[in-house]
Amino acid sequence: MGRTVVVLGGGISGLAASYHLSRAARPPKVVLVEGSERLGGWVRSVRGPGGAVFELGPRGIRAAGALGARTLLLVMLGGSWLQTLKARGCASPQELLQQKAQEAVATQLGLKEPPSHCLVHLHKNCIPQYTLGHWKKLESASHFLAAHRLPLTLAGASYEGVALNDCIESGRQAAARALGSEPDS
Question: Which part of the chain is the Amine oxidase domain (predicted)?
């Protein structure tokens, strides 16, 4: 009977790992387990008023053709000004966030025209920010898995790199480790 590999999580890293496992010279049976109703993790698009497509996930994924031409720019805001608002006890009203996004786009990209459509969504703690000691904990976990010969590998934005390409590469490397080969760096 052939080998079975279970991939926990259908985010970008899990999908990449599943893809690379299924493309191996001697592919194992791949079982992808996802806890939500959809695949893709943080990568998600929603259709807004008038058919505009809003990206609610990593930047840079957009549909091809006419649909992609109508996809609007995703602006991610945060940092000290948002922390200052929270410290003052200010709620984050939609209008203020939209205004700040439009100011950032005007300043950084030179786009002065207001958007034809706008969708404001506040994601709290949505971008992985590695805390002090993260890499040491990750190294310790990797040594533990190797020392105990546990058939488990870690992949995804929570471990090594938060960008979309990091997640895809993390999934590819996890698949290589699961197949017993060293991932090409």
Answer: 70-179
- Tokens read off for 100: 């700040």
Hey, what domains does the chain have and what are their CATH numbers? 4-38+128-179 (3.50.50.60), 44-72 (no CATH), 75-125 (no CATH)
Query: Which 3 state secondary structure label does DSSP give 115?
Result: coil
**Contact predicate 10/39, CB 8 Å:** yes
Q: How far is CA 124 from CA 38, 60, 88, 121, in A?
A: 20, 21, 17, 10
**Cβ partners under 8 Å of residue 184, min gap 6:** 176
* pLDDT tens readout for residues 99-152: 888 887 777 777 777 777 777 877 666 655 677 888 899 999 989 998 999 888
Least-confidence region, from 52-56, 107-111, 134-138, 177-181 = 52-56
